[in-house]
From TrEMBL:
<dbReference type="Pfam" id="PF06750">
    <property type="entry name" value="A24_N_bact"/>
</dbReference>
<dbReference type="InterPro" id="IPR000045">
    <property type="entry name" value="Prepilin_IV_endopep_pep"/>
</dbReference>
<feature type="transmembrane region" description="Helical">
    <location>
        <begin position="128"/>
        <end position="154"/>
    </location>
</feature>
<feature type="domain" description="Prepilin type IV endopeptidase peptidase">
    <location>
        <begin position="53"/>
        <end position="155"/>
    </location>
</feature>
<keyword id="KW-0472">Membrane</keyword>
<comment type="similarity">
    <text>Belongs to the peptidase A24 family.</text>
</comment>
<feature type="transmembrane region" description="Helical">
    <location>
        <begin position="96"/>
        <end position="116"/>
    </location>
</feature>
<dbReference type="Pfam" id="PF01478">
    <property type="entry name" value="Peptidase_A24"/>
</dbReference>
<feature type="transmembrane region" description="Helical">
    <location>
        <begin position="49"/>
        <end position="65"/>
    </location>
</feature>
<keyword id="KW-0808">Transferase</keyword>
<dbReference type="GO" id="GO:0032259">
    <property type="term" value="P:methylation"/>
</dbReference>
<dbReference type="InterPro" id="IPR050882">
    <property type="entry name" value="Prepilin_peptidase/N-MTase"/>
</dbReference>
<feature type="domain" description="Prepilin peptidase A24 N-terminal">
    <location>
        <begin position="2"/>
        <end position="40"/>
    </location>
</feature>
<keyword id="KW-1003">Cell membrane</keyword>
<dbReference type="GO" id="GO:0005886">
    <property type="term" value="C:plasma membrane"/>
</dbReference>
<keyword id="KW-0378">Hydrolase</keyword>
<keyword id="KW-0812">Transmembrane</keyword>
Amino acid sequence: MVPVFSWIVLGGKCRNCKSKISVQYPIIEALNGVLYVLVCAVNGLNRSSLLYCLMTSALLTLSLIDWRTYEIPFGINVFLFLIGIVATVLDRGNLISHLIGAVCVSAFLEILFLLSGGRAIGGGDIKLMAVCGLILGWKQIILAFLLGCIIGSVVHTIRIKVSSAGHMLAMGPYLSAGIFLAALWGNAWISWYLSLLGL
């Protein structure tokens, strides 16, 4: 939260050159801090929460970039891949779940990418679901994908109606939202759903 307070104290300007600093930067910093608190409040203070916090920062960053440019930086996916390796090692008792998670959604998206000639989904989105599937495991990444599609459909439909936004959308922010929700509440939601089915 230090950058937020610094921005307020300095009146939204650089300390040295006095150039104006966009308000989006303290907003993103504040949101990042709030999400960190949420992660720890829901998941507790443990090693997985540390990994989820790092994942959250990466998801927030790539969401903003993808929203503006329709591209997810490769370096952010590499960073998430490293988190996935650590998460898999720490949870090696569920190694198979993590490995399946890395391919179950991304393989489907890769097929969709090939069949559509890249028009239906972007390569960055495929890599995002692969590396986050490695972090979360197969059950949660499937849920994350479904949530991301639902959120994306609802939000973008509203944007088209309200602001005449084009039909092309950046999936990164919506997939990131689904990943974040699945990471924190996925197991509970999956258990609840299976209980409804009597499983």
